[in-house]
Amino acid sequence: xxxxxxxxxxxxxxxxxxxxxxxxxxxxxxxxxxxxxxxxxxxxxxxxxxxxxxxxxxxxxxxxxxxxxxxxxxxxxxxxxxxxxxxxxxxxxxxxxxxxxxxxxxxxxxxxxxxxxxxxxxxxxxxxxxxxxxxxxxxxxxxxxxxxxxxxxxxxxxxxxxxxxxxxxxxxxxxxxxxxxxxxxxxxxxxxxxxxxxxxxxxxxxxxxxxxxxxxxxxxxxxxxxxxxxxxxxxxxxxxxxxxxxxxxxxxxxxxxxxxxxxxxxxxxxxxxxxxxxxxxxxxxxxxxxxxxxxxxxxxxxxxxxxxxxxxxxxxxxxxxxxxxxxxxxxxxxxxxxxxxxxxxxxxxxx
Length: 351
Hints:
The chain is an alpha/beta fold and 351 residues long. The chain has 16 helices and 13 strands. Strands 1, 2, 3, 4, 5, 6 and 7 form a seven-stranded mixed beta sheet that branches. A six-stranded parallel beta sheet has the order 10-9-8-11-12-13, with helices on both faces.
């Protein structure tokens, strides 16, 4: 590994930093948020650019984001777009380029970082037994054995920025947040005033969908849980729904309507507005999916439901967050009663 001690001590010389994470999903991206904060802490005056994928671009592309100056959506529709993209990057003359590979390794990300001309190129040499075939494009790298240590994804990301002395204290980690613009806050306030006018009633939100079918707790389980919570707390009930979740949320709403239990559905709005709504909720129960990480970084009372993936690696990291791990690889081995009892424990501390 190259020694960059002298370079890193001269923070005033670092003007442009590039972070390339263009092949990741929303949850993977948000697990890197503490790393972005660590880089910002180390280089407060630098211009920090993030290259994101279309699915993770919107959540961080905001003037309210204190960690990044610019978020670029990697546009590869035509050769013209690709050439324009690289010309724009190369003209920036990046001092540091980081490729935070923590779950999978993208050759494209390393090529982008290299062609951008980053002087110091940071990343992984290997992840356990998985070698980085693009490691020759990095000049600051190390071998990582995260699975053996059962480290959370946020710590894995920070391990990479620690290679250039960018880190956060435990208290600083707890302060990392998604921040909202005034219009987004106003949207959430108006939505609550319209849909949830009785301020004495709690608001329980649920996300029953997920991109990966194996991460989806069954709709019947969600319905049973919502019925139990409705009887016990008489709350407002609300579902969050992405483009791929409509069939599931329509089914749940239909079943609840037949039981004379009202339920709102949030759909066809931006992920940032959804985040602003989740921030105000009393409780958010969700499968292991992107909105769970959004809930974590707005410090919601979020409960993540885990089946085949590991909650210790991907679960909510905020002070109010928690997760429940299924006893087997099947998420539906997780019983409604267990989630209900866990919810009651959480609510006893917040109501």
